[in-house]
Specification:
Helices cover 46% and strands 0% of the residues. By secondary structure, it is mainly alpha-helical. The protein is elongated and about 65 Å long. It contains 2 helices and no strands.
Length: 59
């Protein structure tokens, strides 16, 4: 049985091995996803509108 050593005191090599063991490919993303708020200001949407409006004025 191995003696317990705190993570902070492990060598760089042992830390990498420990991290690799913990790292697992998730089947489902653990990040909570929420729908966009339709009332909130969206900068990307506003930028697209300006681009589409300015194109006819140039010609």
């Amino acid at each position: 049985m191995e003696k317990f050593i705190p993570y902070e005191k492990l060598s760089k090599k042992k830390k990498r091995e420990s991290d690799a063991r913990r790292r697992v490919v998730w089947q489902i993303s653990p990040v909570t996803r929420r729908p966009e708020n339709p009332k909130a200001y969206n900068r990307r949407k506003a930028q697209k509108r300006m681009d589409s409006d300015s194109v006819p004025l140039l010609f």
